[in-house]
Amino acid sequence: MKVRIEGGQLLDSRCGELFRADIAYDDERGHIVAVGDCLGEADKVVKLNGELVLPGFVDMHVHLRDPGFTDKETLATGLQAAAAGGFAHVACMPNTNPPVDSAALVEDIIARGRAIGKADVHPIACITVGQAGDELTDFEALKQAGTIALSDDGKGVQHGARMLEAMARAKAAGLPVVIHSEDETLSLDGVIHPDAAKRIGVKGLLPESEAAMIARDILLAERTGAHLHVCHVSTEQSVALIRWAKARGVNITAEVTPHHLLLTESIITHDDAVFKVNPPLQGERDRHACLEGFLDGTLDIIATDHAPHTAEEKARGIAHAPFGMVGIETVFPLLYTYLVAPGVVPLSRLVDAMTRRPSELFGLPGGSIRPGSPADLTIVRTDEERRIDPEQFYSKGRNTPFTNWHAAGWTVRTILRGKDIFVQGEERLS
Ligand SMILES: NC(=O)N[C@@H](CC(=O)O)C(=O)O
Ligand SMILES: [Zn+2]
Ligand SMILES: [Zn+2]
Q1: CATH class of 2-53+372-423
Q2: 12: CA distance to ligand 1 center in Å?
Q3: Which of 90, 182, 296, 316 makes an SS bond possible with 320, Cβ 3.0 to 4.6 Å?
């Protein structure tokens, strides 16, 4: 069936300007047929009134908690939440129970994800067996099964020689190594930024633990030629090191989260674990450096690090609650409202960092609106402001630090290969 979307605004990726155009796609074959005016007959017409029609969003860092932690999230709730946030594709981290360290587990997630029929899920598998930091997993078998990258996210690989071997083998297998950069001999059992920790009376987490590990892994990536991708960059020193590595020609890319672009440790004025995340919210200099790094492309992409936890777990307070914040349903409205609308970040930079760039880095489909490309589309309304209410989330996780913030830029429809995977107001999957 031929579908036409008319009355929307598209983004010209070369000049960054918005323009009016219609889009025709084939909802069975799943690709875009034409972009422009007078696109001819269609079996179905979606009429818009100036909404943005963007490529389907891509998030390279989410925690879907399935298998093993389904009280926090399930594949179904996580992939519906992703679609509601405008995401057509998400990459899920392997810190589940059991950890995703075998081909069978990768295949299981892909098969169950596909059956749910929401966002497409692309598993990232463990670097080390059981995420224990020691024996390496079978990279070739994991790749055959469909894994798109390797990571022990949640923990850093502490042993340098082991990481060197992992990068050499990842290079041979053609898989990116995605690092949670944390030198545990520095971070120890700290929980939040040292300044905030002093105010609250808990243990500080040394920010230098991040850059220390990034420095090591830059050197190992340079030696091996592996594609090193740095997760959730949060400090000024980390941004400087990545910028330096790129200038040297190291095969390195990086991501930044919405919370590290919008928040600092100063928001932590009382013991509320909703602000506890790893890496922690840092200082204003760090936040500013992340923003600069994002604008100049040192930090290539936006990733949410969507990390749902239960209300009970988060009620344990900053010292004892698990690290992590949800983010997949609010990332675009927050960054649109607080960075794009005030003129800090161009819309084209934000959209590129959530679509074309992550697709390109990890070899995923989509990322552009052109005849022949997949009909992965996100339709966003920028003229309707809403208050963020976690009770409305499709995710099981309600642990957002942005409760009661007002934002515009909500997704009204998400399309994957020509099929609607989210329409505003739809029922929850359980
Ligand atoms: N970011 C977090 O604070 N938590 C993540 C782990 C991680 O991304 O390191 C989680 O799995 O909960
Ligand atoms: Zn991490
Ligand atoms: Zn993570």
Answers
A1: mainly beta
A2: 35
A3: 316
52 - beta bridge partners? Answer: 9, 380
Domain range list for the chain: 2-53+372-423, 56-362
| Sheet of 44-47, strand order | 31-36, 22-26, 2-6, 44-47
Residue 13 has pLDDT above 90, yes or no: no
Pocket probe mutation, ligand 1, options 61, 73, 95, max atoms within 8 Å of Cβ: 95
The ipTM (two decimal places) reads 0.99
Name the 3-class secondary structure at 2: strand
Average pLDDT score, the chain: 97
> CATH code for 56-362?
3.20.20.140
CA of 82 from ligand 3 middle (Å) equals: 15
Q: 55-88 pLDDT, tens per residue?
A: 999 999 999 999 999 999 999 999 999 999 999 9
Annotated binding site for substrate: 63-65, 95, 278, 309, 323-324
Strand partners, 32: 25
Q: Which residue has the tokens 């500080």?
A: 204
pTM for this prediction: 0.98
